[in-house]
Amino acid sequence: MLKKLLLGGLGAALILTAGILLGHFGIQRGLTTPGWIQDVTQDVDEELIQKFISEVDNLEIQENLRELTKVPHMATTPGDEKTVQYMLKRWQDPDTGLDRAWREEYLVYLSFPDPKTPNKVTVESPTGKVLYTARKTEKPYGQDQENPDVVQPYAAYSPPGHPKGKLVYANQGKPSDYLYLNQTLELQGTIAITRYGGAGRAQKAINAAPYGVIGVLVYTDPRDINDGKMSDITETYPNSWYMPPSGVERGSFNTQYGDMLTPYLAAKDDTYRISPSKITGIPPIPTQPIGFEDAYALICNLGGLPAPNEWQGAFNCTYNLGGPGFEPTSNFNDSQVKLDIYNRGEIKNSSNVMGVIRGSVEPDRYVIYGNHRDSWVHGAIDPSSGTSVMLEVTRVLGRMVKQGKWRPRRSIIFGSWGAEEFGLIGSAEYSEEYYSKLSERSVAYINVDISVFANATLRASGSPSAQSVILKASQQVKIPGSESTSVYDNWIRYFNRSSPAYGVIPNVGFLTGAGSDYAAFIHFLGVTSMDISYTYDRTKTSARIYPAYHTAYDTFDYASKFIDPGFTSHQTVARTAGNVLMRLADSLLLPFNCSDYAETLEGYLSKALELYTDGLAVRNISIEPLKVAVYKFRSASASLDKMIRDSDLANETPLKVRRINDQLMLLDRAFLDPVAFPDQYGFRHVIWASSNAGVPTFPGLADAYSRAASSGLDVDWDETHRQLSVLSQAILGAAYTLEEVI
Amino acid sequence: MLKKLLLGGLGAALILTAGILLGHFGIQRGLTTPGWIQDVTQDVDEELIQKFISEVDNLEIQENLRELTKVPHMATTPGDEKTVQYMLKRWQDPDTGLDRAWREEYLVYLSFPDPKTPNKVTVESPTGKVLYTARKTEKPYGQDQENPDVVQPYAAYSPPGHPKGKLVYANQGKPSDYLYLNQTLELQGTIAITRYGGAGRAQKAINAAPYGVIGVLVYTDPRDINDGKMSDITETYPNSWYMPPSGVERGSFNTQYGDMLTPYLAAKDDTYRISPSKITGIPPIPTQPIGFEDAYALICNLGGLPAPNEWQGAFNCTYNLGGPGFEPTSNFNDSQVKLDIYNRGEIKNSSNVMGVIRGSVEPDRYVIYGNHRDSWVHGAIDPSSGTSVMLEVTRVLGRMVKQGKWRPRRSIIFGSWGAEEFGLIGSAEYSEEYYSKLSERSVAYINVDISVFANATLRASGSPSAQSVILKASQQVKIPGSESTSVYDNWIRYFNRSSPAYGVIPNVGFLTGAGSDYAAFIHFLGVTSMDISYTYDRTKTSARIYPAYHTAYDTFDYASKFIDPGFTSHQTVARTAGNVLMRLADSLLLPFNCSDYAETLEGYLSKALELYTDGLAVRNISIEPLKVAVYKFRSASASLDKMIRDSDLANETPLKVRRINDQLMLLDRAFLDPVAFPDQYGFRHVIWASSNAGVPTFPGLADAYSRAASSGLDVDWDETHRQLSVLSQAILGAAYTLEEVI
User: Fold this and answer.
1) Which domain of life is it from (chains A, B) (predicted)?
2) Catalytic residue among B362, B420, B421, B432, which?
3) What is the number of other CB atoms lying within 10 angstroms of the CB of residue A278?
4) Band of residue B290 on the pLDDT scale cut at 50, 70, 90
């Protein structure tokens, strides 16, 4: 009986236990614990990141590049349309595409030469006889050499005109160069030949015009691009990566980004357009780029005094300043140089190709990844090396999505921007058209334009708060050909800095200019942005940039032979950028570090204090508010960091995580001030706006101080004070966003 | 055996069931269902709202008002400091106060008369003999009558000066008034006397100056404020609510809000300040307000032709235009009127008093409720009727918080703004200092300034999306003295409109101007804003505003005898505004309706199409983009509404609710464009910016079109086209924020 009772009790206990287990596990979950709990607390999955890294394929990238560079695809040309179609096909692929992909159109103001009457540069004798005609034809080797559709080299947005005058050599066309020249000869009515570098493209003409110079030639000196080498036969492409003598570096010669006829407005059919004559920032006199074989013929025949040592390039002759004009003993003697420039503005249709993967938990948070699609000619490196990488990233991620293996927590937007070469136009129009929703929801923008300049090391720039995620990703990816060396370990050998917080770490640069499509994101929208690429070993070359840049030689042949044979550097960039992208999209807590921003601001502050405190005090301007603001920013970031450390976010309400993420996401937004720089179109970020002062500190303050110190005018000191207040208020306002929210 | 088996089976089944139940209810909840689930899905608690309504006490409001109005409390005076202390004491009260309260300081540019040399208005004979001195002294009845600290009437920011000239009567000082006058007499060198109304305060002088007028007097005609009554003895205060003959309406005569020396910067110690000489929007010639007893003496002695019928006021004489100057038969004969104005700018410390209740679930969402604290004299109605209401709202809510009975889902911020009377300065500086965090997190701003103008009906203005929550609250509150009539039912009898969606409903007005502290919130920050008060029965009075407005007669005595005896209208406003506040703070889904915004935009569009389509077409400007934008906005709001209807939000992930709430919260933000109105300081909201065109449609388009149609200049048509593009892009951008988020 006892036994029976015991057995019965045991049985009952077993049944009870079974019931408890059944009740606990069998029913409960579906009933009162919402199914979404697991989703909302899900963090980044490291296994999926490893899977992504392992699936990124160098040969896929190579084939992407081959496809993209079959024809020249300058913005709005038929070749560009082919790349649009190709991007759409890839992103709409049922097995490896994105959730959705589509195109968006803008009618933008571009600048083209006249295809029927090409621009010309000639040397004319006093009797009008043409002694020399520059603009020899580039001969793109490899697949394209028979292709007639190679785009004529010209300076986009340079005005048309037919200036004729004596030639002078103006070095890099910097203000100091013309100042020097003007002290030794009469510049009025001359044509200046300048070499790339030292000053912005447009600046060479803008700086020249006040002296009466009437036209500018620009070329790439072998000193600056070829490590001095200039032979066509053995030393340059197709025998090396160096620029052949016929190579001409094209470019845009405007100083403002975005469509210039529709400032702050997306360029649609009926959008208000200013008159082209109202555009500011277009050079006042014509400029024409030429190859260095033509520059050689001109410069080595110049008369006058020898140019300073600093100005001498790699030609095997002495660079004279010009009489002005040619050496009396040369064939050109009394001749003048004539530019016949037929460039003209045209409003044309430019497309962005957009694609998205919808986020599962926070679809209203956007991680944006983009690159431009348009090139000057075939654009293998610029931009298709980046587009090939982007396509490989979307192929691997798209497949994971299509197979149901992955869906990011946040939405991912991919952008293939149009008309970047004309001034970052596609991305700028996009930022204007979708200003509100992008401002509200963008977590970050990742730009991979030229993905491989050279195959030595990763290089990255970005908002300081993004430093940590880039470094983290770089630790997880190996460099080409190594099973053990991480991108991080390699990178730190090439570019490093000493951080007060971390010691020596790879140096993530700043996004201070408008060099690629990140400009509209960081400067106009205030979205935390990054730019990632592979780049040079500076002990091996001093080339200003990879030598085929913006020439007809930037082809698949060139890229695959001399930039990245095997495409493993491309692969490394794809792995690193994709890793960053996945972390931004999937992390429960956004991988942004506000204390790293504080470190940067402190560095800028210490430079500002060193340079400006005394000069400001003389004018009774206190720099104290800036100090207070940066201190406050530091303490607010420290307290946010502590709050994060002290929280068990996976078990907190999702609204607390969202709150912190919003603080991190909106940090760069807090540095925007639309009235800070009224004369700098599209620059609203008071920490990263472009600056002329050349000092590693706050740009608005640096420029205003430099102007005031030089002019001594009250109005300039007033502006310096205003900049100080604008800056201090922005930093303090940003600090307030990091503090406890109420 | 069968029975035994059955019993055993039954027993086992019972035990199993017990186990299941135990497992299900006994263990599960505490273990895997997070405790925060209930909090994050909690909606507004109607019982708590009823509790709030029942606890709002009219006598508490009365005592608040008595306390606040003991002394004059013009901005930055000792009386103002007393009110600061009082607000702090109330909001820091351990039993009925807020979580925290503190003060914030700004150094702002104000304008005061010289206390030692008061401004003077005299009539001087040709020999320099003073025949008459205006500016009789107001005698504030009731508690204040012996108080010597009554503030001298003057026109703040009117420049100092001593103009002397023949007097003319210029009606309301509108452009058309001066145009008319100028056709009948010589205005050069005259002093113009004008009556309040028709044109903004500053405009009377700004409009006059181009004609050579050298000084302006302004007074309140009994026709405009007293329903024609003007006797001192029986018909006006203290015998009725009408303005006594000695009453002088003060005011600020600048046209820009916020501290004028620190545009877009919070006015702190070291902030950059423009020179006062650089301020724009200050009248070029002196203005002085006078009482109508003085105006009577001047106007009824004027010579010249009789003024048009429209210009005649309620004095028992014919209003002549002036010869210029007085009637030859009058005592004043050849005399001139002289203004001696000693106003001067002073930078003084102004305080905001801030208080907060921290939100429990979404502390990073702010519902803001505010009113200014400063008055011109005792300011019983303006602004203390509003402050008394705010203090009663905080007392009731504060007690619920202190007793642990309630904590709002979102944070509530209360603001007692300083220096509003000088141009909404306290709230504007607050919006500048905390721009980023307020932009990111503000759900709404509720303004209750003058809470009771009169005791007939509720009146409310606000963003269209806020209409529904105001109407909802008004249905839950009864009017004074009734157990059955709701505020809604009463309101609809006084102000109503026919809505395409709802039929006849109370008319919620628009916040188009900068009449009170909502300006910085709606126009600069783009925060959905509301303004709530109790107001007139227009069948009973045509008074421009309550007659003691901005005079020394606006006292507790006046308020309690003539505006709201028993303070039950105040109580009604407190109940309604507090109800709105609680709904905004507690609702799971924000009680904003984007389709109501669409209705408003459609109304504006249809007016714009009617007025502008043809005129624009003549200039080849297509209005199509505006139509497309409004249609898109309508369809996007319809789809968001449908998504809301189709969702079971209490059971969805809290991040979905947050996402929708963010769409609703940020809707007004999407209408901001900081470059839309470069000449209108602090106006960035393209739907509500102030307009001169007087047409119920989009303000920027209306003003630009009106200017272009009148001038015919290309530059004005260009600006009209630009405004059309700015507007269309903003509406389209707002529509994009309402669409499915990706």
Assistant:
1) Eukaryota
2) B420
3) 11
4) very high
